[in-house]
User: Which sequence fits this backbone?
């Protein structure tokens, strides 16, 4: 009975997009981050249980009782000191052998731009503007004076490099198995670009552009979330991260190019 109820509840959660534990990982680097998180939580659980047992021991051992006189003199034990040193050493190992290598790879070991999909993402209250270069691989010029409801990034369509550029709102489409380089910025306030299923998270700050990259290994439709409280409409700053097959991605590009031609006509 309980097993059936648990399965039924899990089915409800799955239909609503919820999962137990960490979100599914579709990135090639996410396993290292997940291993770090899992190791850290096991270690914290061990500390919690250990200190909890010690607390209960102290409550029982030093409780007020008949025939017992409190000793206010400090007790000198070497074990707590060695335990604390061990905790510090373990945490240092987590940083040196787990955190730093992953961070260094993501921040310094960028893939070749020529073989990657390069995309500019500009956050605003309350949407994600995704700017793709056209077939020429070059981004068109942008101008703040050209920004309006139909041109959220201020793309200059008169610029030869901008005639074939594609701009999408809240729909981030990428091909599976291809490195993606994101140039992240913001128009107005600080936003938090968060792809839970790609293990990507970075602040978008006005006046600054941050490069970041990732590569996917599975197709699917996932969420883009804002991880910073960016205003009263923060709750609706949700986009969709669509990992497509190469064929599906190419077809989407063709559809967008056809739409641009129709608009130009």
Assistant:
């Amino acid at each position: 009975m309980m097993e059936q109820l648990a399965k039924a509840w899990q089915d409800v959660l799955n239909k609503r997009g919820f999962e137990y534990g960490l979100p599914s990982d579709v990135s090639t680097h996410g396993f290292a981050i997940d291993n770090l998180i899992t190791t850290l939580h096991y270690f914290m659980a061990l500390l919690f249980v250990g200190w909890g047992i010690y607390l209960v021991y102290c409550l029982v051992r030093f409780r007020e009782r008949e025939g017992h006189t409190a000793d206010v003199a400090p007790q000198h034990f070497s074990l707590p000191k060695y335990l604390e040193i061990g905790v510090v050493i373990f945490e240092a190992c987590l940083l040196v052998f787990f955190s730093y290598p992953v961070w260094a790879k993501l921040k310094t070991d960028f893939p070749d731009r020529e073989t990657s999909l390069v995309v500019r993402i500009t956050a605003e209250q309350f949407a994600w503007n995704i700017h793709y270069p056209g077939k020429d691989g070059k981004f068109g010029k942008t101008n703040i004076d050209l920004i309006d409801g139909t041109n959220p990034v201020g793309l200059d369509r008169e610029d030869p490099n901008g005639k074939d550029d594609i701009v999408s709102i809240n729909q981030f489409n990428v091909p599976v198995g291809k490195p993606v380089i994101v140039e992240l910025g913001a128009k107005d306030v600080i936003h938090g670009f968060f792809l839970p299923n790609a293990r990507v998270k970075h602040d978008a700050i006005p006046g600054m552009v941050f490069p970041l990259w990732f590569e996917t290994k599975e197709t699917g439709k996932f969420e883009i979330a804002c991880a910073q409280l960016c205003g009263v409409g923060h709750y609706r700053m949700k986009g969709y991260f669509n990992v497509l097959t190469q064929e599906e991605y190419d077809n989407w590009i063709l559809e967008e190019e056809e739409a641009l031609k129709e608009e130009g006509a």
Notes: Strands lie at 117-124, 127-132, 166-169, 171-175, 180-186, 191-195, 200-204, 210-214, 220-226, 239-244. The two ends are 64 Å apart (CA to CA). The mean pLDDT is 88.
